[in-house]
Amino acid sequence: MTEDIIYRPATTNDIGPAYAVFRRSIFDYLFRLGMVDEATARNPPIEASWKRLSAWIEHLWRSAAENWIAVDAAGCVVGWAMSVERDGHLELTHFFVEPSVQAKGIGQSLIKRIFPDGRARHKSIIATQDTRAMSLYLRNGVSYVTTSAEFFIMPRRIEPMTDLVFERVGANDAAVEAIALLERATLGYRRDVDTRFLLGLRPAWLARRAGSVVGFAFGPQPTLPDSDWQIAASGPITVLDAHDLPAILDHVIDAAAAAGDGEFSILAPLINRVAVAHLLARGGKIDPFYMKILASEDSMRLERWIHTSPAFIM
User: Fold this and answer.
1) Going residue by residue through the chain (314 aa), what tens digit of pLDDT does each one get?
2) Considering the domain boundaries, does residue 312 fall inside one?
3) Within a domain: residue 310?
4) What is the pTM of this model?
5) 281 and 179 within one domain
């Protein structure tokens, strides 16, 4: 019974049970889409996926704006929702309910707590196509912006045809500030805490023209042994001028080949026509798991943006 549900802020001890709800909910959705079989949906690879995603979950958990769980009468976590606030922008990162108790009001109670109106200047969600969740999101201050798809890319040596100069950067203040200014110009907000986290995970470059920074790119992150997914994630990537996207994408593909990396993924908004056309020309294969970008206003310049992958944040 939903009246027996207790809602409370999550604590450190809740991270394991909350993550398990996330994985069971995702695999139930994949089963309903016909992408996994029933046996896999009932027993999803929780431990193996934790090896791949734990750094991300722990980072967002530590830096969350709101982080709530729903607990049933037996003390079991049956719902988890989390949002982060960056520079006046509130983004829903996780929103999952145990499959056996979905569509009973738990999600509605959670979203009121973690995604309230008036909390930030604007809000966004990277959402699956689950119709029940989508209906709830669209009643909470966001509307459709674009669809995004993941492209699987095989690295190869390419000489980018460009006058851009690519500078490899690490987790220093100058790099964080340069990336923040480009994020402000593209997304409308900066994400310094996430940038520092990403700079510790994956290779990154600034793109310069005549000495001025006009773009940045995060390449594929090395995969871990014994995880459930051996295709490396990459991103974000952005440029001030969309015409520079092919060159910066080619630089990432070439750098991955030089490093001996295997196939990796690039998550692109389909409104980004230049990137989509170039990724297809480079042999990119589209994953059938699409995502919808929802936002409180259509101000982000996603026609020159490549998402952060995994798709917890923009």
Assistant:
1) 567 999 999 999 999 999 999 999 999 999 999 999 999 999 998 998 998 899 999 999 999 999 999 999 999 999 999 999 999 999 999 999 999 999 889 999 999 999 998 889 999 999 999 998 999 999 999 999 999 999 999 999 999 889 999 999 999 999 999 999 999 999 999 999 999 999 999 999 999 999 999 999 999 988 766 655 668 999 999 999 999 999 999 999 999 999 999 999 999 999 999 999 999 999 999 999 999 999 999 999 999 999 999 999 99
2) no
3) no
4) 0.94
5) yes
- Residue 306 belongs to some domain of the structure: no
Same domain, 176 and 45: no
- Is the residue at 92 inside a domain? yes
Angstrom distances, CA of residue 184 to CA of 193, 239, 312 = 14, 12, 19
> Could you tell me if 93 and 168 lie in one domain?
no
Domain membership of residue 198 as a residue range: 150-289
Q: What is the DSSP letter of 302?
A: G
- Torsion sign across C-alpha atoms 252, 308, 11, 79: negative
| Interatomic CA distance for residues 50 and 16, integer angstroms | 9
Helix (H) or strand (E) holding 184: helix 173-186
CATH at 78: 3.40.630.30
Q: State the alpha helices, DSSP H only, in 224-272.
A: 245-258
